[in-house]
Specification:
By secondary structure, the protein is an alpha+beta fold. It contains 5 helices and 11 strands. Helix 1 crosses helix 3.
């Protein structure tokens, strides 16, 4: 069982700002993986892992064997295993691109591939319009984001272990640069799937939250009540959500979130049986 570090009340507006900066910064990992990592089905080669010691997200191995990482608390882009590191604070995307392209070219990689446009739209942020990264007032929030993500990586891995013991095919927990969420998607055959995951916030819930997604969507009245830490979300999609403001109010955060997962996963499997 992995360790859970207690999370506390945060300024969710500033946490959103930190999340959007980190989301945009993580696209450099996604671009590099898309350009240089060995292709995997469903864009799996672009997915990112969490390195607890590094306190950041990391790519799969690129074609030269190197891996790129983004340390979250100080938003620093690194080529792991080397001294190559670039703090993003005060830099525009053009500067980041120039630095990374030169480092990859020095490793024998075709830097032009880094310029391939992303195949998806990103949330609006001034960084995309040429503004510089600025983390001066977001240090505590970036550290909080790293803490949430570290907790999520460990807890979701424990949830996955439980699913594997039930002989369900739950893949390794990974972060997806498009939505910036972390999940393990269980394929049940046909079009049926259950996703156990964590999102640092989005247009549907502007704070960190854990979730269980269900495909196809179930009949709402058949779903059971969830523990106080969670609720059934039904706007535009149906999922079990455990948002940050309910989690921080818990006297035993890990126990209550695991209880949330136990009930919502069983409900999802029953709905799709």
């Amino acid at each position: 069982m992995t360790t859970w570090q207690t999370v506390s009340v945060a300024d969710y507006r500033k946490l959103r700002d930190a999340r959007l900066l980190a989301h945009h910064a993580a696209q450099w990992l996604g671009r590099a993986a898309r350009a240089y990592a060995s292709p995997k089905p469903h864009d799996g080669h672009t997915s990112l892992g969490w390195d607890a010691e590094f306190r950041g997200l990391t790519t799969h191995a690129l074609s030269d064997g190197s891996r790129l990482g983004l340390r979250i608390p100080d938003l620093t882009l690194c080529i792991l295993g080397s001294n190559d590191a670039l703090p993003l604070d005060g830099r525009a995307e053009t500067e980041v691109n120039g630095w990374l392209a030169s480092k990859l070219a020095a490793r024998g990689l075709d830097a032009a591939k880094l310029q391939t446009p992303l195949p998806y739209e990103m949330p609006h942020n001034v960084i995309a319009l040429g503004a510089r990264y600025s983390i001066e007032e977001l240090g505590p929030e970036l550290s909080a984001l790293a803490l949430w993500t570290a907790n999520a990586s460990g807890l979701l891995s424990d949830v996955r272990d439980g699913l594997l013991k039930r002989h369900l095919k739950a893949p390794a927990v990974r972060c997806w640069p498009h939505h910036f969420d972390m999940d393990s998607l269980i394929q049940l055959g046909g079009n049926r799937a259950v996703g156990s995951g964590f999102c640092p916030g989005d247009e549907f819930c502007d704070e960190p939250y854990f979730y269980i997604s269900i495909y196809p969507e179930p009949y709402i009245p058949s779903l059971p009540l969830l523990p106080p830490v969670g609720h059934w979300h039904s706007y535009k999609f149906i999922a079990a959500l455990a948002p940050a403001h309910k989690i921080v109010a818990s006297l035993d955060q890990r126990r209550d979130i695991m209880g949330f997962f136990d009930i919502s996963i069983n409900a999802a499997l029953e709905a799709l049986r």
